Amino acid sequence: MQRGADLARSICWLRRLESDFFASLAPEAVQALRPLEPRDLLLEGEIAFLLAGVKPCVLVHFSTLPALATLYVDRVVRPFLVDHEFFDCTAATTSNTSTTRQRLTVNPVAQGLWSRETESFDGGWLIHFENDDNDNRVATGLGKAPSVELLLRGGAWSRPSEADARENGIEEDVGLNRLKRELKEDDLAALLGYPTTLPAEPTDDFVEFVYLDASMPDGSGQGQTAGESGDNYRVLMSYGGRQSQVPAAHRHFRECRAATEGVYDLRLLVR
């Protein structure tokens, strides 16, 4: 995957595309996003970790304005892919190290998928490497990430038997004449490269992990600021988990920091 100066150049171009895109949103779109602000939706950090090889894929989905995801893909992702489509990816084995050429691509998420935290993934897109096999996927604290097909294959499903539907958590919405499938939080977290999972119920055990970039203070409104001890640092990625998963989050943070050295001055805020 990309490292150092190559990754820094790629992210610089991505940052400009994102900045121009969100700055160009019509006031009506910004209003429709509320309570989120455009700065809450930046995906630079997630995409950087994907390019650096520490994240299996990136989900483009804005729950308060689903139609925005397709505009983001058309105006940010596709222009980025014009010059950043193929990457040399190194895979180490016990006997040798091999380098393969992988293609970065973006595909629509299958219709009818939902999770406990997200009512619907309809309208979403997935950025991922085309060669998505177990040898090239990132190992997280939950083990090997599930295949991206978990989010991409739904539209091609055949009608399951009643027994299979019960076993696999598939529900048929007769009114919409389509199949709906719940994505389990553990599978979704692993697929998206997060080392933790959300508690099943609201609890005092909840912890938020925030990855910050201290190399570029956020004095221009170009990203989130974390607050508390992360004031004026740009937020690159955040996710939730449980107290018992703090060690896994720390391991994941160290992997991300090592992979993006020279690009970000990565800090971890736990709150």
Physical arrangement of strands within the biggest beta sheet:
1-5-3-2
Helical proportion, percent range: 25-40%
Radius of gyration: 19 Å
Low-confidence stretches: 133-144, 155-160, 172-178, 219-223
Helix-strand topology string: HHHEHEEEEEEHHEEHEEHE
DSSP, total strands: 12
Number of helical elements: 8
The multimeric state of the shown protein is: single chain
| Mean pLDDT value | 80
What's the main sheet like? 4 strands, antiparallel
% residues in beta strands: 15-25%
Task: Kindly name the structural category.
Answer: alpha+beta
The dominant shape is globular
Distance between the termini: 31 Å
Can you describe this structure?
The chain has eight helices and twelve strands. It has 271 residues and is α+β, with helices and mostly antiparallel strands. Mean pLDDT is 80; it is low at 133-144, 155-160, 172-178 and 219-223. α1 (4-23) packs antiparallel against α3 and α1 (4-23) runs antiparallel to α4 (68-83). The strands form four sheets. It has a four-stranded antiparallel sheet with strand order 1-5-3-2, with helices on one face. A three-stranded mixed sheet has the order 4-9-8.
Summarize the structure.
This protein has 271 residues and is an alpha+beta fold. The protein has helices spanning 4-23, 27-33, 44-51, 68-83, 149-152, 162-168, 185-191, 246-259; strands at 57-60, 86-92, 97-108, 113-114, 125-129, 139-140, 143-144, 170-173, 178-182, 206-213, 234-242, 266-270.
